[in-house]
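Suppose a colleague, Dr. K., hands you the sequence of a protein chain of 480 amino acids and asks what its three-dimensional shape might be. Before reaching for any lab equipment, you can write down a predicted structure in token form. Begin with the sequence itself:
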Amino acid sequence: MKELINYIKNNVITNKRLEGEVRDERNQKLPQRNAYVVLKKYAKDFFLKGTQPRMIALSGLRGVGKTTLMWQTANYVYKNHTTKIFFISVDDLNRLSATLYDVINVLEKEIFHCSLNELNDRVMIMIDEVHEAKEWQKDIKILYEKGKKLFVLTTGSSALLLHSSSDLAARWTLMKIFPFKFCEFIIAKSWIKNPKKIIFPVKGLSNRLKNTILFSENYEKAKNGINNLQENIKNYLQNSERVIDKSINLLIDEYVSYHNIARFLPLVNKTLVIERVLALFERILLKDIPQINQDYFYIYNRILFRIALSDEINFQSLSKEFRIKETEIEKIIVNLNNAEILNVFIPHGGIRSRTGGNQKVFFMSPSLRRALYTKIYGDKLKDELRAKLYEDIIAMYLKKNLSGGFISFGYGKKKNPDFIIETVDDSVIMEIGINKTSVTQIKTYGKYRYGIIINSKIKQVKFEDSNRIIFIPLSWMLLI
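The predicted structure, expressed as tokens, is then:
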């Protein structure tokens, strides 16, 4: 217990520690992501008004920046509300053979000298990798019930946090942290080049573009809305090219293939990025997915390679290919989806098709698919393979911006569109491609409000009024 007491006392956060955590090796402050704005508001409201939420869990793919967001929030709290901030690493607790319950006892007996529910002042506690603590759900519940004056920020594995007990789900707020948006990538790239010339997105542009593309009432309103945004989009993209000194196409390729995961952004060597991504795979499979043994690790890897080559899957065919039960295949896909490796969509249609064995599966980060491609094809990719990376990133954008129940994939015809987006009245049908010009898959699929074709080769938006279809540059779609 002495070791734990010393550990907690030594992890009362100081200004020097905070400054080290929120700055890079150049002593420049790390740029803040969009999620930071939300966390800052939660913290401000709690410390000024005592309002909920007061316990927040950051979940997401390893490496997306959860721990950095936690430290940046702590820095805001330290500068504006309280210097009583504690940091607990569960890795350290495990080395000390201690639990979160032991931490609660030490805080009460050795630090505050009173029960947590008797605290007068508000305090912040950070818990990193909470899911790796023994009986963490029970202890977090105790911490919540006793710590009315505590602002608790935790990070952890999506595979476990997202499927914690219903008791815990009712108490804490889960924030899902996605890979970088393109605008966040541009902020980070410009900051690396020159911290004094950061390229920030045009205020309100992302939201206006999202509402125009996904929620317009009809084709004419979508067309007019996009036309009204053209100048802002053009200026932002040109400014990004000028400051970073790289064409938008090259920036998109770097973003999609290698640098949408925050942890890998400082790495310039592409081979090293690929190696780190593959190591990330292995760590997620072995540490974040419960009860996976070495035999299943091999099967998981083979299924991931299979998905990388063909995103639409069928449980029955995979069952025959891998010689395991369909229920086991389904369990593997669910686990990979929960761990944020995959992004799973169901087919468009009635109950029968939605509950069948067909699913369309994307990688949450296209860097994961790119790493697997490198193992099979080397560095150079054909257009049809690169198009899969673009589908991954658009799938991530759609999942981030829409509830999963509103997005599906075309199903039941010879040529099916990539996404069916069920908003407002009739659906928006979306196709993605390298240089896609055909409108057949949209026009013949069924009733639709308007169609969107995302084309990576074009630089300007195009309209086909006769079929209510809008051709949008990939660079534009990445700004929503």
